Amino acid sequence: MQTSESGKSDMHVLTARQRAIHDHIARQGFATLDALAMLFSVSVQTVRREIIHLDRCGLVERFHGGAGAIDKARRRDYSEKKAVAREGKQRIASKIVADMRKNETVFLDVGTTLETVAQLLAARAVALRVVTASLPAAMALAGADQVETHVIGGIVGGADGSLVGAYTAESLSQYTFDRCIISASGYDSGWAPTDFDLQKIFLKRLAMKRSKLAILAMDGGKFDRRAPITVARLDAFAQLVTDAHPPEMLLEAARGAAVGLDICEM
């Protein structure tokens, strides 16, 4: 199938149903397979085949249980983030957890990748002190006797259960960390990680300042995504852990910034 320079297929080569599914996802930004099957009165298997085709054409972004619109600057909602790149996040989390050492004090940022890290830590028999502003990460660690979990108080900042505000920052400033694990939503043109929420970014920066080692954890789906606010320069991180081979320009930027790169491919 012929594609344009932007990577999108010519719409006239799609079937009527494929165009309708694409248009619906473009309007809504996100749709599940079940919802699409009900809307178009077809089976989930049929919708899945249509989504696979649209994804291969570069017209939608497929994920577990549904699809999203292609918009590199669009902010995904929490339910969509939880569905995207599950296996990749598991591989990233496995690497991050394996590197942690007994009795370290670790800051876990907010986000679904960090929630996966917390889930793996809860099953690992290594004594740690974990500090987080993520309610889901804290709940994942509940009952893990080997982990001393500190939840930084504050105002709930959204559906992801993140805590933000002046009290959160004040509480965080009382700690020092052996390592902090930071997430972000995309990269800028110079390959610095970027995100959407200034309050959350302020906490990321503060944790990095108070940590001996800053680790950036981002799945490969974010290589070509954008967000408006820079978290920190790439050289502020000691290590980038991802699940897919990065673009050559990011590899060059990481080498130039002396950032270690762990690619957790299948």
The count of helical stretches stands at 10
* Uncertain parts: 1-12
**Total strand count, please?**
15
**Bulk shape:** globular
Structural class: alpha/beta
The CATH topology of the largest domain turns out to be Rossmann fold
Identify the quaternary structure here.
single chain
Average pLDDT works out at 87
What Rg is obtained from the alpha carbons, in whole angstroms?
Answer: 20 Å
DSSP strand content: 15-25%
Q: Give the strand line-up of the largest sheet.
A: 6-5-4-9-12-14-15
Distance between the termini: 28 Å
Question: Which CATH-level-2 architecture of the largest domain?
Answer: 3-Layer(aba) Sandwich
| H-E order | HEHHEEHHEHEHEEEHEEEHEEEHE
Helicity, as a percent range: 25-40%
Largest sheet: 7 strands, parallel
CATH class of the largest domain: Alpha Beta
Q: How many structural domains can be distinguished in the coordinates?
A: 2
